[in-house]
Structures are given as C-alpha cells and as structure tokens.
Amino acid sequence: QVQLVESGGGLVQAGSSLTLSCAASGSIFRIVGMGWYRQAPGKQRELVASVNAGGSTNYADSVKDRFTISRDNAMNTVYLQMNSLKPEDTAVYYCNSYLYTSYRDWGEYWGQGTQVTVSS
Q1: ∠ CA 82-83-88, rounded to 5°
Q2: What DSSP letter does each residue of 28-90 carry, written as one string?
Q3: How far apart are the C-alpha atoms of 103 and 117, rounded to whole Å?
Q4: Is residue 118 classed as helix, strand or coil in its secondary structure?
Q5: For residues 103-119, average pLDDT
Q6: Per-residue pLDDT band at 88 (split at 50, 70, 90)
Q7: What distance in Å separates the CA atoms of residue 53 and residue 9, rounded to the nearest whole number?
C-alpha cells in the first residue's frame, strides 16, 4: 500500500507565495519520478512540474520562472515552491509519483489533492 499525502494549500492573494509538500509512504522500493498536477474547475488536469530520480525537472510554460519543484529522496518527499501566484493558478493540486513497490512491480500513484485559491 502506497500513500501520497499533500499539504500546504490555502487561500492567498495574488503575488503571494505558497509551498506545497507531498510525502510518499508505504511499500516503496524505489521512486522513479514525482510531480505536481493541477485541475481547475471545468478544465482538464494538467502537469505543473515534475522531477525524476536524477533530479531533472520539467515545468509547464505557465509556471516557469515562478514555481520550483524540489525533491528530498531520503524522505520520499517532493515540494512545490510557488511564487508570484496569479488567480489563474487557482486549482486543486495533486501529487503524483511513478514508483516501484518491489524490484519488478511499479505503478502510478496520486494524492488526494490540496486546494490552492488565489484571490485578485
């Protein structure tokens, strides 16, 4: 059993900062990648940022230069530092991970989501 637990969402004003955290726990053999997705009302879920085991990162164009993803491999935790928040960043943010639960069994896992609301 694997769990991804997010924290750090909330209501902030435009221009503010927030940091989201996601801790993976359970039967984890090896984490391949971790990332953040978001889904705004009436829109499809989209990738915000991801980081692989080697530390390479990928960002959506809309958040480049404002958001930073980082990973603590020892703690199986991923962070999303969000600066200069805009109302259009309002969404439910989901943590995502591809990981192995044994040397051969792997899967994709999701957190329960955390709401981020940015007021203008």
Answers
A1: 75
A2: -SEEEEEEEEEE-TTS--EEEEEEETT--EEE-TTTTTTEEEEEEGGGTEEEEEE-S--GGG-
A3: 40
A4: strand
A5: 96
A6: very high
A7: 25
pLDDT at 74 exceeding the cut of 90: no
Q: Is 49 within 8 Å of 59 (Cβ atoms)? A: yes
Q: Are 26 and 1 in contact (CB under 8 A)?
A: yes
Q: Is the dihedral of CA 2, 46, 19, 59 positive or negative?
A: positive
Q: How confident is the model at residue 16 (pLDDT cuts 50, 70, 90)?
A: very high
Q: What is the mean pLDDT of residues 70-97?
A: 96
Residue pair 24/30 in contact (Cβ under 8 Å)? The answer is no
